[in-house]
UniProtKB/TrEMBL annotation:
GO terms for biological process: carbohydrate metabolic process. Residues 1-18 form the signal peptide. GO terms for molecular function: hydrolase activity, acting on glycosyl bonds. This is Six-hairpin glycosidase-like protein. Keywords: Glycosidase, Hydrolase, Signal. InterPro entries: 6-hairpin_glycosidase_sf, 6hp_glycosidase-like_sf. It comes from Bombardia bombarda.
């Protein structure tokens, strides 16, 4: 059977794969997630990147009200009524001295506390609703009342299969998501359907906490919102949910006999029951009334096709011939991360760190995380998923980013940070002073150009790159006493724990500025267009990367977090948060020689820095993507075993379903960990310029890889 399928594909697509369809399917299914109880921290999800449904052990949201989240479902609480703070326009921000002039930053203003807070907390992403089992009117059933609970998430097809017994009868549940609409398809087989087993639909109200995990919304503020039911045919009904200015619709369609009723007084609960032994139903969530919604059969077919195409069209790493538990665990993380990225991050807006599982930071997305979260689609051969949001979101946010720069007295476009779908960046000291998100468009564009080096790519990104480079060049400050261009102060570097008014020339940002301006300049040259002089002048005269020289050992030279940082390596504050110096050679390629002169990177300093981070950094407080960045740095420094050690570091945890554990500082899941693991492993599989090909630890024989373009 397997061979036939492979042959068919081979013949029909003339596809010659190093890792055959059969082998890919075997590897993927080896890591299918199996549970026999609900997790209290993560669901099992099905979804399409713009919409996802988080299920408990019943395959629905019966006992654990996990989220049904989308790219489009957002809500605002009402504006403050405080005099002078009743509209968004009343907010003015804060002025800080910036190189002898006052610049306005979007920071909370104590004199405008209510509107500042409103702008931080609004809009927030909403849980569109829950669907679960009901066991008959007046029957209260707990998960412990169910027997023989089993569940398997088949990542090869997108099927969630769950079964359990109740009252000695079996219940078998299949749950699917449609790749092409925001639809959940449910099939239930059970005799109990005739004696009271049915479905409920319930609708929570948003809450305004920064982190909504593991669940999103509150179920006890029923008077604050309304729902209504309209039966549209014998087999379909629409529930309309209105929360202040947000309204959306759930269209429920079923096959055969069935009835929907509700809401139960004082709640937003609706019930569906059928007298048949087989329930087949779909629920489509839409911001406007939906004209059509797909039936169960078409969702099942579309899901199977989409996932098979996802697993067979992209790049692949097969570690199954390596007899090591470390390789098996790395393979598990690779497979589950690929599944979870497609479900949670392949969206038409930049994804949030917790994807579509729950809300971190009110459900908003951080543009500095966009590189980690979205780049894997490019590196793993899934450009169509990258193109869902790129470069369109940068184009959409361009007018407000041009405004932001202009109001601050800079040229070009200054991208925001903690962002909602309108492109507004939430007030915050760090939000307004972080700068490492600025060159991301160059990284995306250059990666795309390496895969598709043609005029379509050049044209798509040109406007965004030009506006980005204009800002970067004008943000750099020419220091007449040193004769170089400085970055900051004020600013926050990647490690968000330095004093902003004293932070000058951080290592990673200087390297990234040089990279970004270099890409922007090459972009113009490739189009035979003139390169703005300011870009190359700033690129070539940026301050040198800051070094730290050990006072008692002149040969002990390392990179420093920023120029003049006190107590580098000895003060605990200097070895905490993100070790961004590992990014200048891990995430970034070495500088191209176009900038004139010798490479400004010192290999000795890079090696010493890597060794000192390993020995002294407070990695126990790190966010997980640090480990992937350290792994990429180790790879370029020639130590693949060290890279794997970082990717399996005890603080870098992935749960039984592959969700990256947030750790001490952020909620679970924290997807930049999974996404960055895919960037690091893509580099292991495909190598990088000058070192193309596989880079796995000694002794890992027989690794098969397929479809990788070397990294920059
Ligand atoms: C249920 O899962 C737990 C944890 O994975 C495992 O130890 C146990 O054997 C499982 N039980 C059954 C009946 O599969
Ligand atoms: C929330 O309010 C802001 C400011 O008025 C507006 O730009 C945005 O579109 C609103 N979002 C929602 C989901 O209502
Ligand atoms: C930075 O300087 C500004 C004045 O330009 C001041 O208002 C602000 O409080 C300072 N920030 C910190 C964190 O010291
Ligand atoms: C389960 O059994 C109880 C007790 O016999 C009965 O009241 C209830 O209706 C049954 N529920 C279902 C869904 O069959
Ligand atoms: C409503 O539910 C939330 C948890 O979902 C709880 O924190 C809160 O206290 C409840 N409020 C009331 C009024 O019961
Ligand atoms: C550039 O490459 C992409 C991807 O192969 C293709 O869709 C596009 O048509 C190409 N553009 C040109 C001008 O060849
Ligand atoms: C110029 O650079 C030196 C050394 O980095 C720094 O101490 C000084 O503050 C800078 N001057 C200005 C005006 O920023
Ligand atoms: C400086 O070098 C000495 C001697 O090798 C060493 O003991 C010390 O830890 C080093 N200091 C730093 C900050 O690395
Ligand atoms: C697995 O990795 C750990 C470090 O992450 C290492 O100590 C151990 O030796 C490795 N085991 C094998 C079998 O390679």
């Amino acid at each position: 059977m397997c061979r036939q399928l492979g042959l068919l594909l081979l013949l029909s697509l003339s596809l010659v794969e190093a890792v055959s369809l059969c082998q890919r399917r075997k590897v993927v299914r080896t890591f299918n997630v199996r549970r026999n109880a609900s997790s209290t921290s993560t669901p099992l999800q099905i979804g399409n990147g713009n919409f996802a449904f988080g299920a408990d052990i019943t395959g629905l949201q019966t006992f654990q009200p996990y989220g049904t989240l989308s790219t489009w479902g957002w809500h605002n609480f009402s504006l403050p009524t405080t005099p002078g703070q009743t509209s968004v326009e009343d907010y003015t921000g804060m002025q800080w001295w910036t190189h002898d002039r006052l610049v306005t930053y979007a920071q909370p203003n104590p004199a405008e506390d209510d509107i500042s807070t409103w702008l931080i907390k609004n809009p927030q992403r909403i849980n569109l609703g829950n669907i679960g089992f009901t066991f008959g009117a007046g029957t209260s059933v707990a998960e412990s009342d169910l027997g023989q609970k089993t569940q398997v998430l088949d990542m090869w097809t997108g099927k969630l299969l769950s079964s359990f017994t109740y009252n000695s009868s079996s219940v078998e549940v299949e749950t699917w998501a449609d790749p092409d609409s925001d639809t959940i398809a449910i099939e239930v087989k059970s005799d109990l359907l005739r004696s009271g087993l049915g479905l409920f639909f319930d609708f929570p109200y948003p809450d305004n906490n920064k982190f909504n995990a593991p669940f999103v919304g509150v179920w006890n503020q029923t008077v604050a919102h309304t729902t209504s039911l309209e039966q549209t045919s014998r087999n379909s009904a629409t529930i309309k949910h209105s929360l202040d200015h947000t309204t959306y619709f759930v269209t429920v369609t079923w096959e055969g006999e069935g009835a929907i009723s509700g809401p139960v007084k004082g709640t937003h609960r609706y019930f569906f029951t059928t007298p048949a032994k087989n329930l087949r139903l779909t629920a489509t969530f839409t911001p406007a009334p939906s004209a059509k919604n797909p039936n169960l059969g078409s969702v099942v077919t579309a899901s199977r096709d989409w996932w098979r195409s996802y697993w067979t069209s992209g790049a692949f790493i097969d570690l199954s011939s390596v007899k090591s538990s470390n390789a098996t665990e790395l393979q598990r993380r690779i497979i589950t991360s690929q599944y979870l990225l497609a479900v949670n991050l392949a969206s038409s807006n930049p994804p949030q760190e917790s994807g579509l599982v729950n809300n971190g930071w009110y459900g908003k997305f951080h543009l500095e995380m966009n590189l980690w979260n979205t780049l894997p689609f490019a590196r793993w051969g899934h450009f169509p998923l990258l193109w869902r949001s790129l470069p369109s979101t940068y184009q959409r946010f361009l007018p407000s980013s041009l405004d932001r720069a202009r109001q601050q007295g800079y040229s070009g476009a200054r991208w925001g940070k903690m962002t909602d779908p309108t492109g507004r960046s939430a007030p915050g000291e760090i939000n307004s002073l972080l700068i490492w998100q600025q060159p991301h468009p160059m990284y995306f564009a250059e990666t795309e150009y390496r895969a598709f080096p043609n005029s379509t790519t050049l044209t798509r990104w040109d406007t965004v790159l030009s506006a980005t480079a204009d800002f970067m060049a004008s943000f750099a400050f020419f220091n007449v006493s040193t004769g170089v261009y400085d970055l900051g102060p004020p600013m926050y570097p990647v490690s968000e724990n330095t004093p902003p008014n004293g932070t000058l020339n951080p290592a990673f940002e200087l390297a990234y500025w040089r990279f970004g301006l270099d890409v922007a300049s090459r972009w113009k040259t490739r189009q035979s267009l003139p390169v703005p002089q300011a870009w190359t002048t700033v690129r070539d005269k940026l301050a040198p990367l800051p070094l730290h020289v050990n006072a008692t050992d002149a040969k002990d030279v390392t990179y420093a977090v920023y120029e003049g940082i006190p107590g580098m390596w000895t003060d605990a504050a200097t070895t905490n948060d993100h070790p961004a110096m590992a990014g200048i050679y891990g995430l970034l390629p070495p500088p191209s020689p176009t900038g004139g002169g010798a490479s400004p990177l010192s290999m000795a300093a890079l090696r010493n820095t890597a060794a000192k981070i390993k020995a002294r950094w407070a990695l126990e407080d790190s966010y997980g993507w640090d480990f992937s960045m350290l792994a990429m740095n180790a790879l370029r420094l020639g130590d693949a075993a060290q890279a794997v050690e970082y990717l399996l570091h005890p603080i870098f945890q992935f749960d039984d379903a592959g969700y990256p554990v947030g750790g001490s500082r952020v909620p679970t899941p924290y997807f930049p960990n999974a996404a960055s693991l895919l960037l690091a492993t893509a580099m292991m599989a495909g190598g990088w310029d000058g070192e193309e090909g596989k880079h796995f630890p000694a002794g890992w024989e027989g690794v098969e890889v397929d479809g990788f373009v070397p990294s920059m």
